[in-house]
Amino acid sequence: MSYKTDFGRVLGLGSAKQGTGHFWSQRVTAVALIPILIFAIWPLDAAVGLSYEEVRAIYASPFNAIMLILLIAVGFRHMQLGLQVVIEDYVSNPAVRTAALLANTMFCALFGLTGVFAVAKIAFAG
């Protein structure tokens, strides 16, 4: 007994078996962002308006640098997962959808790595 429609059987389309993993990845990153954000906001708030040397002193602490790097990495991954769902749901043209998904992945990876590099450069400058 199959639950596929006749049209689905003809096209050979079925479940991609990735929906649950994507769902859980989105939820785990959302929950992980809560404590990361709490611990990353305090030094970030303290650094506003300070000179470069004072900011560098704050982020010379491994805990502060790691929390900010985690915030950037997990935040961009969460954004990439959310935008992927929006693109898959609302872009109907397959070529445009593929291009948008590729651009989404590249954008999030590029800017995420740029942010991580910037924090690492500040933390290890010296």
From TrEMBL:
Q: Is-annotated flag, keyword Nucleotide-binding?
A: no
Membrane topology reported for the UniProt record: Multi-pass membrane protein
Q: Which GO terms describe its cellular component?
A: membrane
Q: Where is this chain's protein located in or outside the cell? A: Membrane
Concerning CDD domains, the annotation shows: SQR_TypeC_SdhD_like (cd03495)
Q: How does it assemble?
A: Part of an enzyme complex containing four subunits: a flavoprotein, an iron-sulfur protein, plus two membrane-anchoring proteins, SdhC and SdhD.
- Know the name of this protein? Succinate dehydrogenase hydrophobic membrane anchor subunit
